[in-house]
Design goal:
By secondary structure, this protein is of the alpha/beta class. It is built from 13 helices and nine strands. The protein folds into two domains: about 170 residues, Aldolase class I (TIM Barrel), CATH 3.20.20; about 150 residues, no CATH class. Helix 7 crosses helix 12 and helix 8 packs across helix 13. The longest helix is centred in the C-terminal third of the chain and has 18 residues. It binds iron/sulfur cluster (2 copies). The site of one iron/sulfur cluster (SF4) has 13 residues, from helix 10 and helix 12.
């Protein structure tokens, strides 16, 4: 596939340069350092000849494994292989419209992807959907959330399109983030009883929400480091090499820690008293330091310029449309999922990995689903 908003397909095949012995050694070292979550993405992980070796080894080591795929090569062998191996498969699906699917991905394979979804559903496999959202498919957010729900997906995750690589042609301003979040929260409230969250509110607290939506950018931190098939390290997958940001070459875990130091220094260099625009007067400027680095760089801004996409402000605008009771439900859901997902992210955050972009569905009404947990 050659998705119009993604540059990763340029790397397809490069991953076969990685020999499985090397990956085993790295996983062993990373496991010894305390890492427990492995995300395999692409390009396309199914094009890697040793995918099953890597999954099997990572499972033996005790990793929780995410496989992000276009879904084209999922078959019964794969579904049987990953059963009981702590694997969650995430299929990238951006539209249910055949013509738009062809337009966005360059292939006429929507039916084949839906067969993969049917297979995962019928086999009660752990899987989720990932939708990259732009102006082309924004109108389908609600329908895709519903498709995930009725097909027993664990969750659907929405990602505002990255304005890097092939995505530079897309509009990614504050208004598109706002539009997307309005649609997600509308679906959430319309289907609240189908979502995986405690029925009784325990963590409704706008202050908690404010704290985790104003953490400094987590690029290069303990939570967010990307390793490319050519073994280059980047602090965040949306910070490509053509931005002037720290990168590294992976030979051992020490290189990950060295990159972390460089990003600490980068954040330290952003002085809160030099932030501009709305960030200059912001209550959270000392912790937040002006928000997402990538969005500033992709807009040709400096790190002290005003943040064009303040997620905290966007969330406040979305919540202001709802009654107090509805706000309580939404914040309760987000705070609960923030608690579940925040292990290891520490003092750093990322606007694209916040719980606000995900909908998790409950399974307890279906007895067949018990053994999945
Ligand atoms: S206004 Fe700026 S500093 Fe304040 S929360 Fe938003 S992005 Fe962060
Ligand atoms: S906040 Fe932006 S630059 Fe930082 S990790 Fe997230 S996407 Fe990357």
């Amino acid at each position: 596939m050659q998705c119009s908003f993604c540059g990763a397909w340029n790397q397809n095949g490069v991953c076969n340069n990685l020999d499985p012995e090397t990956i085993r050694a790295y996983l062993t070292e990373l496991h010894d350092k305390g890492y427990r979550y492995l995300s395999l993405s692409g390009g396309e992980p199914f094009l890697y000849d040793h995918l099953y070796d890597v999954i099997g080894f990572a499972n033996q080591k005790g990793f929780l494994i995410n496989v992000t795929t276009n879904g084209l090569l999922i078959d019964r062998d794969y579904v049987s292989f990953v059963r009981n191996k702590n694997v969650i498969t995430r299929i990238s699906l951006h539209t249910l419209n055949r013509d738009l699917y062809r337009q966005l991905t360059g292939v006429d394979k929507l039916d084949r992807i839906m067969q993969s979804v049917d297979l995962l559903k019928d086999e009660h496999a752990l899987y989720g959907l990932g939708m990259t959202v732009s102006g082309y498919n924004m109108a389908e957010v609600y329908d895709l959330a519903n498709y995930a729900l009725v097909n027993n997906a664990e969750y659907i995750r929405f990602t505002p399109v990255y304005r890097v690589y092939k995505g530079t042609d897309f509009s990614t301003g504050s208004e598109s983030f706002l539009d997307l979040l309005n649609r997600i929260t509308r679906f959430m409230l319309d289907h609240y009883d189908k979502l995986e969250c405690k029925r009784r509110s325990t963590v409704f607290d706008k202050e908690i929400l404010d704290i985790y939506t104003t953490k400094p950018c987590g690029a290069g931190s303990a939570a967010y480091v990307a390793l490319n098939p050519d073994l280059t390290l980047v602090g965040c997958p949306v910070l490509p090499h053509y931005f002037d940001v720290p990168t590294g070459q992976f030979a051992s875990c020490e290189d990950v820690f060295a990159l972390r130091q460089k990003y600490e220094a980068l954040l330290d260099s952003i002085r809160a008293d030099q932030l501009k625009g709305r960030c200059a007067d912001c209550l959270y400027k000392t912790s937040c330091k002006g928000g997402c680095i990538s969005i500033k760089l992709e807009n040709g801004l400096s790190l002290t310029d005003e943040q064009p996409v303040c997620i905290n402000e966007i969330i406040c605008r979305v919540l202001s449309h709802y009654s107090e009771d509805e706000q309580q439900k939404i914040i309760n859901y987000w705070n609960e999922w923030h608690q579940k997902r925040s292990v290891g992210t520490g003092s750093k955050g990322c606007i694209r990995r916040l719980p606000v972009w995900e909908l998790h569905f409950r399974k307890r009404n279906d007895p067949k689903m018990y053994y999945r947990r």
